[in-house]
Amino acid sequence: MIKKNLSLLFLLTVLVSACSKNESGTPDPIKPPPGNSSFSFTQLKVNDTFNGFSYYGLNYKPVFKVSFSAPVDKNSIAAAVFVKDKDGKAADLTISYQDSDNTIIITPTTNLNPLTKYFLDVQSNLKTVSGGNLLSPITLNFITQYDPADKFPVISDDALLTLIQKQTFKYFWDFAHPASGMARERNTSGNTVTTGGSGFGLMAIVTGINRNFISRADGLTRTQKIVGFLKNADRFHGAYPHWLDGNTGKVLPFSTKDNGGDLVETSLLFEGLITARQFFNSADPAEAALRNDITALYNSVEWSWYQKNNSNTLYWHWSPNYNWDMNMPVKGWNEALITYVLAASSPNYGIPKTVYDNGWAGNGNMKNGASYYNVQLPLGPANGGPLFFEHYSFLGINPIGLNDAYANYETQTKAHTQIQYNYAKANPKNFYGYGENCWGLTASDDINGYMAHEINNDNGVISPTAALSSFPYTPTESMQALKFFYYKLGDKIFTDYGFVDAFSLHDAWFANSTLAIDQGPIIIMIENYRTKLLWNLFMSAPEVKSGMQKLGFSSPNL
Question: Where does the secretion signal sit in this chain (predicted)?
């Protein structure tokens, strides 16, 4: 008999959890066994609507109506009904009754906090007037809406762009590694510095000088420090590793077998170094020496050696311990166009066009041509992938008016960005907050660690760098996002180093991290949108012009 009752209770609990609905859209009532004095939950409404047991974007004083199969004992309410935040702090509640006390109406006495996760618990010690207990407890989770009030004074759009650039610049200036001047991987990285992120940092320094955030002399001194460090840091056939120790210049393994040269990170570093070389163009002996040092470093990268035994593609990694075990060819479409451009541009270790055509372009296999959210996409995976594909290489390479045998790159970069914007507006997964003011998916920190967010891999996490680094492609849409991020969410996501890496309004989650590879594109691409500064500098490099022409590119900037 005991076993039979336990089985029945388990079945009833499962039915409540499954939350089956009848034709009215409310849960099917669960009736206690005949002769049992216990009572059951029969109906739930949140602000007069039933939508399961999870709610998003609720107002600050939502009304919960919970109905039962028998009148409740009012004296049992205080010990059985709670609204608590995720830290367990209980809200004061106002309770009223309907339907001869079969329905309790629960309302917070004062406003709940914005963008906060709460739980409504109705526990099984709730009693009926006849003394029976609630058959199964009820738990509902909900998240309150964001506060629509502006968090900072409204300023002009131009002033706002400058403010964002200046604040983000601090990551690369104030938080740079003290010994090497290199960019730390993230705001908790200690001595771990990133080569690709430092390339972005060099472009940020150029931007900072141009915007008068720092003097040219101070920018030169910092760049000299970085280049001096790089001259003595570990290299592998001329290529730098992903991570270095900022004190010693020794390789720090990114993973067990990734403890050698990283050709893509190296190309992102030299994107910044070449841009800096073109900027420091005066006859001053210190600037001339810096230019010579950067050129010597670039000319010693053995790009062609990374063809892996003369194959027709470039390979991402090589390790002195594990050789080519990582076995990752650099194939398009992704962020690594810059790798093939700089490899083709090298005067000492240049690759031929056949390596670009076969390795990168797959002889046309990287083409797409399908339409997503009413926009045709020339290259890449379905829906485009994460947006950093259109950022990293194009910090220096100007895609406007750029063509080759495979695509018009102005069309590519704009199409991918527009697809993501249209996706957020359509919001097919019904994530709270998504829309024309809140969009942008790319690789970033995540609720569960780190994730390459994209349309095909979307869990409700927005990465500010995605929309903000797209200013040259979608200026109107990016400005909408910037104003929302800053004015509406700024108290949650705007910090000493600019915007945090990611957030989710749907889950009321906000990262406390900043990453070099995400902060850098924000300041750089806003500047390219405003003045084309970094584009003009990088594209002015004679090696780059000849290398891109060798690969079949045409552009007004070549």
Answer: 1-18
For residues 382 and 490, what is the distance between their CA atoms, to the nearest angstrom?
33
> How high does pLDDT run on average in the chain?
94
* Separation of alpha carbons 173 and 450, rounded Å: 25
Comparing 5-19, 137-151, 168-182, 294-308, the range with the smallest average pLDDT is: 5-19
Q: Alpha helix locations (H) across 86-194?
A: 157-173
Query: From CA 126, how far away is CA 132, in angstroms rounded?
Result: 8
Q: What's domain 157-550's architecture?
A: Alpha/alpha barrel (1.50)
Return the structure tokens found at 495.
Answer: 């910090």
| Residue 392 to residue 413: CA distance in whole angstroms | 11
Note the Cα 195 to chain centre separation in Å.
20
DSSP state of 494: E
Alpha helices in 177-315 (DSSP H): 195-210, 216-232, 263-279, 285-299
Q: How far, in Å, CA of 468 to CA of 165, rounded?
A: 11
- Gyration radius of the chain over CA positions: 29
Give the DSSP H or E segment for 481.
Answer: helix 475-483
Question: Do the Cβ atoms of 242 and 254 come closer than 8 Å?
Answer: yes
Q: Does domain 2-144 have CATH number 2.120.10.30?
A: no
